[in-house]
C-alpha cells in the first residue's frame, strides 16, 4: 500500500472541517472555544434548593393582612426575658477606652 | 428557615448566575493562545477581580432538608441520614431497604 503524502492528508482534514463546519486547527492551539461552547450552569444551579416562603417578607409587603410570625415573636420574647435577667447583649462601645475595658474584663 | 451556610450557598448560586457570561468571556480571552500575551494577561487580571461568590466552584450542594455539607446523595440532594429517614417513610420513589 502506497504511503499518502502528508500534504494530501492535511488537505483532507481541511476539507473535512469545511464540510462539518468545525475550525481547522492542525497544531492543536488552545483557542478557548470550550468556554464559549459549554452550557451555562447558573440557571440549573439556582434550582437546587426548593423555593422557601419568606413570612417576614410577606408581612412587610402586605401589612393589612396582619400576619404574625410566631417564630420571630418567640425569639423577641426570649431576648426580652434574657434582658430582664441581665443576660442581654452588652452596650456598643462608644469610645476606644470602652472597648479596651470590655476586653480586660474577659 | 435555612441555616447560614445554606443562605451563603444560595448567595453564591445567584452570584454565579449573574456573572457567568462575563466570566466566560474573560476566560475565553485569557485562555486563547492565538491572542497577544498582553491582552490575555489583562483578561486574567480582570478575572481575578471577580468576587468570591461568582466562581462556580464556591457552590456546594448541601442537604436540602438540613443544610448538612457532607455525606450528600446527589441524586436526592439529601444527606445520608435524611435519605434514610425519607426512604424508610417511603417518600423516595423506587428506593427501599435491601433485605435478602
UniProtKB/TrEMBL annotation, chain A:
<keyword id="KW-0496">Mitochondrion</keyword>
<keyword id="KW-0687">Ribonucleoprotein</keyword>
<protein>
    <recommendedName>
        <fullName>Small ribosomal subunit protein mS33</fullName>
    </recommendedName>
</protein>
<feature type="compositionally biased region" description="Basic and acidic residues">
    <location>
        <begin position="95"/>
        <end position="106"/>
    </location>
</feature>
<dbReference type="InterPro" id="IPR013219">
    <property type="entry name" value="Ribosomal_mS33"/>
</dbReference>
<comment type="similarity">
    <text>Belongs to the mitochondrion-specific ribosomal protein mS33 family.</text>
</comment>
<keyword id="KW-0689">Ribosomal protein</keyword>
<dbReference type="GO" id="GO:1990904">
    <property type="term" value="C:ribonucleoprotein complex"/>
</dbReference>
<feature type="region of interest" description="Disordered">
    <location>
        <begin position="76"/>
        <end position="106"/>
    </location>
</feature>
<feature type="compositionally biased region" description="Basic residues">
    <location>
        <begin position="84"/>
        <end position="94"/>
    </location>
</feature>
<dbReference type="Pfam" id="PF08293">
    <property type="entry name" value="MRP-S33"/>
</dbReference>
<dbReference type="GO" id="GO:0005840">
    <property type="term" value="C:ribosome"/>
</dbReference>
<dbReference type="GO" id="GO:0005739">
    <property type="term" value="C:mitochondrion"/>
</dbReference>
From TrEMBL, chain B:
<dbReference type="GO" id="GO:0005763">
    <property type="term" value="C:mitochondrial small ribosomal subunit"/>
</dbReference>
<dbReference type="GO" id="GO:0006412">
    <property type="term" value="P:translation"/>
</dbReference>
<keyword id="KW-0687">Ribonucleoprotein</keyword>
<dbReference type="InterPro" id="IPR001209">
    <property type="entry name" value="Ribosomal_uS14"/>
</dbReference>
<dbReference type="InterPro" id="IPR018271">
    <property type="entry name" value="Ribosomal_uS14_CS"/>
</dbReference>
<dbReference type="GO" id="GO:0003735">
    <property type="term" value="F:structural constituent of ribosome"/>
</dbReference>
<comment type="similarity">
    <text>Belongs to the universal ribosomal protein uS14 family.</text>
</comment>
<protein>
    <submittedName>
        <fullName>37S ribosomal protein MRP2, mitochondrial</fullName>
    </submittedName>
</protein>
<keyword id="KW-0689">Ribosomal protein</keyword>
<dbReference type="Pfam" id="PF00253">
    <property type="entry name" value="Ribosomal_S14"/>
</dbReference>
Amino acid at each position: 500500500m502506497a504511503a499518502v503524502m502528508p500534504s494530501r492528508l492535511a488537505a483532507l482534514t481541511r476539507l473535512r472541517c469545511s464540510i462539518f463546519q468545525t475550525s481547522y486547527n492542525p497544531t492543536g492551539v488552545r483557542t478557548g472555544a470550550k468556554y464559549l461552547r459549554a452550557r451555562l450552569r447558573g440557571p440549573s444551579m439556582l434550582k437546587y434548593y426548593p423555593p422557601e416562603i419568606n413570612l417576614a417578607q410577606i408581612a412587610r409587603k402586605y401589612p393589612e393582612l396582619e400576619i404574625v410570625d410566631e417564630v420571630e415573636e418567640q425569639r423577641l420574647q426570649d431576648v426580652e426575658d434574657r434582658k430582664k435577667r441581665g443576660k442581654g447583649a452588652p452596650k456598643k462601645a462608644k469610645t476606644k477606652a470602652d472597648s479596651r475595658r470590655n476586653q480586660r474584663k474577659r | 428557615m435555612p441555616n447560614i451556610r445554606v443562605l451563603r450557598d444560595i448567595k453564591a448560586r445567584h452570584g454565579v448566575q449573574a456573572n457567568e457570561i462575563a466570566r466566560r468571556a474573560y476566560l475565553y480571552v485569557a485562555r486563547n493562545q492565538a491572542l497577544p500575551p498582553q491582552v490575555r494577561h489583562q483578561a486574567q487580571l480582570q478575572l481575578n477581580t471577580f468576587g468570591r461568590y461568582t466562581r462556580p466552584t464556591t457552590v456546594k450542594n448541601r442537604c436540602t432538608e438540613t443544610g448538612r455539607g457532607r455525606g450528600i446523595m446527589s441524586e436526592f440532594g439529601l444527606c445520608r441520614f435524611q435519605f434514610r429517614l425519607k426512604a424508610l417513610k417511603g417518600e423516595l420513589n423506587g428506593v427501599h431497604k435491601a433485605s435478602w
